[in-house]
Amino acid sequence: MSGAARLGLGCAPLGNLFTAVSEADAEAxxxxxxxxxxxxxxxxxxxxHGLSEVRxxxxxxxxxxDEYTLVSKVGRVLVPPAPDSVxxxxxxxDIPSVDPVFDFSRDGVLRSLxxxxxxxxxxxxxxVHVHDPDDHEAAALATAFPTLIELREQGVIGxxxxxxNQVAMLARFVEQIDLDCIxxxxxxxxxxxSGSALLQRCVDREVDVIVGGVxxxxxxxxxxVGATFDYTAAPPALVARAQALQSVCERFGVPLPAAALQFxxxxxxxxxxxxxxxxxxxIEADVAYASLPVDPALWSALDDVLV
Length: 307
Prior knowledge:
By secondary structure, this protein is of the alpha/beta class.
């Protein structure tokens, strides 16, 4: 495995996730990803409450539309806050004056798609995921997925998927729905193997797997006290396990983030690994990790740590 053919840019950070990103840095990040050979770009209305889609669309306007895969999601529509209301807490800062509201109805899906296309400045999406239906499984099954499948059959969108941070519901969807792909975030990584059985089932059913959270939101990038796991402070026991993995990697002369990324890409179900980045330097470093030579003996040594 070499190069960026199986890498994608995860664009949540470009929506000011936790920390503001300038317009110039957002554009530079997308352009650096392109220069590194990345042709897969994943965003969503939730990311920056529309800001990520706007920025991604502006940056990608410099490149031929047929040469990249553009992904967004449905399940939330962006609505202005009610007058004098307290806006809900958000992980995104410096955001537009709209808030995401769950809506898995047919009208909600169609509205979400239209709004995404407008913000992105394109006329089609290559992949559309139903996004985080954790508390809305019935509605997703009854209306959101059938609407997307109908649009796929009409040629309006390319592929239909589902993006979640959990395994159990995604596994049910893989069995019940004619999905082209899934986006599994954080549940298949060097540290968290809970998605392994799901990935094998995806191999059996010929469902492509896009993996997000390959660094578990930071812990596998830099396993220090205070590092984040699933976007909250990692507990000490988990930090210690990540540090043990890092020690093994150091014996083999491999940075832990390189091992984390290449571990994900070794699985036959995984077609794309998403890399979240907020600067050109970050995405350039991550792409380098993907092609760093690794002694095959590293993988069994890492497995021994987790037994």
